[in-house]
Design a protein that fits this description.
single chain, binds pyridoxal-5'-phosphate, alpha/beta, 15% strand, 37% helix, seven-stranded mixed β-sheet, three-stranded antiparallel β-sheet
Length: 384
């Protein structure tokens, strides 16, 4: 019998170099709107190969700023995936617009241009999509549809740092890309996010939405403390401590991505197609995933998911669920818009019948073999 292991679903990878970077900022005089955040923005844009980057306090903040930037408001509709994090829907709801949900492709977990096209109406202002678990959507198709219909595109890239389509990083196909540095993501700043845009001239406007609508940044003021307010804006800035950690983490991104890819590929080979199991995946050769985690669907009997998770927990295999319920069926949205329980069959199947398995840099090759063996044992025990 193999020895018992303890493998959390996610664990941030922090080194003394990361800690030193934060301490260094703490030893100096500048804790906010300083050079670390600016450098992090430049280095992030370089890492993804283009665009302008604006640091913010979370991915939710980035999504909210996107809604404000596009002037989305009452009377407008935004098309959203049913299978996503609630942040994307809240960013529409909080500005008074209406989210219109579409189901995902059951193979990839992503929305498709075809499904989006079917939901476009006279009030549609934007398409907000997610690269599900780091699997890129078919962005050339979706971008073409959006430009034909005059719609904005918001890409939620919270799990997709490193994901590309035709070699181009996600977040640069649409009008904005929103990233998260929450502890379980590819890199962390504890809390934090980044907004990227391919519109080269947008940075000042995005910067104002993030910082009170000030006309001048901290270093641009002729008289310290003297500024005017030329727009409505929030305070969504990233502090220097968070930015310093982000810069340090970003340097290790290639290593993190490589470890996730190798773990994912090994785990997929050990599970996909075996014993009624299917891995949510996109075989499109033009799509490169960020391999955030591996989503395993218990196709033979999705109703056994919770029991399988219980068995995995008992043997030290950490798991998660992406996402626990289609957003339109979350209580708030269900109460507000009254969607039918069977309106999103693919998203519902993934929500109730899938398990997210860890692929992060804390997982070793032996851990992957242990996870696969424990999944097979749990399935044998639970699925007739
Ligand atoms: C984590 C996550 C978010 C929220 O990110 P925060 O930085 O915590 O606001 C949004 N969208 C997706 C797809 C996520 O996975």
């Amino acid at each position: 019998m193999t020895e018992r292991r303890e493998i959390p679903f996610a664990r941030p990878s922090l080194t003394d170099v990361d800690r030193e970077a934060v301490l260094c900022v703490l030893g100096g005089p500048i804790l906010a709107h300083g050079p670390e955040a600016t450098a992090f923005e430049d280095e992030f844009a370089l890492a993804i190969g283009g665009g302008s980057a604006v640091s913010v306090s979370s991915c939710m903040a980035a999504l909210h700023v996107a809604s404000l930037w596009f002037g989305i408001g009452p009377g407008d509709e935004v098309i959203l995936p049913a299978q996503t994090h609630v942040a994307a829907a809240h960013a529409v709801e909080v500005v008074g617009a209406r989210p219109v949900f579409v189901d995902c492709d059951p193979a990839t977990g992503n929305v498709t241009a075809e499904r989006i096209a079917g939901a476009i109406g006279p009030r549609t202002k934007a398409i907000s999509l997610v690269h599900y678990a780091g699997i890129p959507c078919d962005m050339p198709e979706i971008a073409r549809l959006a430009s034909e219909r005059g719609l904005r595109v918001i890409e939620d890239c919270a799990l997709a740092l490193g994901a590309r389509y035709d070699g181009q990083h996600v977040g640069l196909f649409g009008d904005v890309g929103c990233f998260s540095f929450y502890p379980v993501k590819h890199i962390t700043t504890a809390e934090g996010g980044m907004l990227v845009t391919r519109h080269a001239d947008a940075k000042p406007a995005l910067g104002r939405l993030r910082a009170f609508g000030y006309d001048l940044g901290h270093t641009e003021r002729a008289v310290p403390g003297a500024y005017d307010v030329i727009a409505l804006g929030l305070n969504y800035r990233m502090s220097e401590l968070h930015a310093a950690l982000g810069r340090s983490q970003l340097r290790r991104l290639p290593e993190f991505l490589d470890r996730r890819r190798r773990n994912y590929e090994l785990l997929r080979g050990l599970l996909d197609g075996h014993a009624g199991l299917r891995v949510i995946h996109d075989d499109d050769p033009r799509a490169t995933s960020s391999h955030y985690c591996l989503i395993l669907l218990i196709e033979s009997d999705p109703t056994r998911r919770d029991a399988v998770v219980g068995r995995l927990r008992a043997v030290g295999v950490g798991t998660s669920v992406y996402y626990p319920r289609p957003v339109p069926l979350m209580e708030y949205y269900e109460r507000r818009y009254g969607h039918r329980a069977d309106a999103f069959p693919a998203a519902s199947l993934i929500s109730t019948g899938s398990i997210a398995l860890p692929t992060g840099p804390h997982v070793t090759e032996d851990d992957v073999r242990y996870i696969a063996a424990q999944v097979h044992a749990a399935i044998r025990a639970e699925v007739a």
